[in-house]
Amino acid sequence: MASAKTDLTLWKARLGSARHSRQTLGNSDDWTKFEQYYLGKYPGGGLSMNYTFALIRSVVPLIYFRNPRVSALPRKSEAVERAEMVENLDNWLIQEMNVKREMKRSIVDGYLCGVGVFKIGYDSQYGYAASNTVKAQVPLEDGKVADMSDETLTSVDEDLNRIEHHADINPGMPWVLRVHPNDILVDSAATCIEDAEWVAHRYYRRLRDVKADSKYTNTKNICASHDQDFASQSDRDRHTDELAGSSDGTQPTNADQAEAKSLEWVELWEIHHAPTKTVKVLCMGHDKFLVDQPDELQIDGLPFVAYSFNPHPTSFWGISDVRTLLPQQLELNEVRSLQQKFRRHAVKRLILQRGAFDDDDKTVEEKMMSEDAKMILWCSTDKSPDEVAKELQSFIPQDLGVWSESIRQDMREIAGMGRNQMGEYDKSSRRSATEAGIVQQNSQLRTDERRDVLADVLALIMRKVNQIIFKNWTVKRVMRIAGQEGGYTWKEYTGQDLAGEYDYRVEPDDALPYTRETRKTEALLLHQTLQGNPRINQDELLRHLLGSFESAEPGQLIMKLPAEMEMMMAAEAAQNQGGKPSGAGPRPGGA
pTM (2 decimals)? Predict the structure, then answer.
């Protein structure tokens, strides 16, 4: 068995090999450049048309989920009730963990870097061990049970709240965060996250926090580190000591130096190894592992989910959309810059003979640029004005506009986005309704494919989150679910009570725009369909309809009817539908 020192050396070599593979197959050295293009920072100056930004901002609203929801389908008949509880829990967690925000950020990574990565965790941001957590429930007054949103799990480590401060990561709760691809390495043989032997996640922490975190060992001699081979220029700029010197150019004081010392960064690599189900944390400049223990988050595979809109045939690293558009983008910038230069050259200019006017050169220039309708310049020679002044002729080539539109058309074809999808109005020619429908259908194919990719990603994320919950939620919690007779009921549960095999499904159509007009139309249709149905709470149905109108106040508009009138209306409605009124009488709050 290899020694710890030999094992550490081996893992450092593996990380170096994986980084080289990422550079070769994923072109990771260009990711920072693509990010700069997205920010509108193009080389060479001049005028640029930031199509990279326009493409990504046009696509994100089309493929992300407006209201992410997961359906849990039981694989066994006895798990039907549990599946409903799992579904309610998952949809609550999606909101609680801010999955929608993380998916939006990851879509940008997918377009810039060719791959998007999510990390699933539990209890704390920088690793989890059950020994660091106390599972205890604080009882409420009058013997009531706490709602599941009232988290009662607390960490033993009192310093944890001080050194970990992410708002979406709480003790005893799962979390999902997007990870930038530049902070991820996988073994060189991996073609997807599922067949990866290991995944390494790089993150930076304050030196003082690393030494204060009880999850780490062997931190006595650790120092601030920045491995130049692994940190990109943007990483080095971002994590350089903030107070290396005073802003006024003077030497820093002792207080400045002490503050700078407290802000030093440590670059750490967290490695999740699938064959041994272990997790290791190392620092390139340190001679010992900070963590080397069983990985309690490897329940349903590695705690990562990754995807690519343009998969590489033989590699984990996908193909960046920005890379495919790069030649056209640079050419478009050059055309735009030429248009700008020709426009400047087209400004009328005069060549004047020096000394040909009574006024000095400055006065002549001021008069030429004057706003006055009448401007007089007196020649001091016997020559005519045509001999002392000559107008420069200039023009703007019309072909530049044609070239610009041709390049943009090429970019739209590569991206699979038409004018309309980019937010433009196509008026180049008249189209029939049939032709417009075919064009719209074909343009949606690639968008639907990417939306479907994200649907699979969300389903897989929630599957992994559930496996963590089934194992770690051992205290009683309470969930609110819809009752069969209307209203809500409360049920106690633990993670073990919900454990089981489920099929998770996300409807991609949830990403389609949902406007107030759409909501109003659906409410009207629903009211027309269910009006008078004795099995439907009519007050709630009417309240739903009124709620779709912005100016309506359902509480003030709905008047409570006498019980006799409600029964009569229910009987009349049932008779009109060819049925019989229910013998149970009207339900509370409805007909």
Answer: 0.72
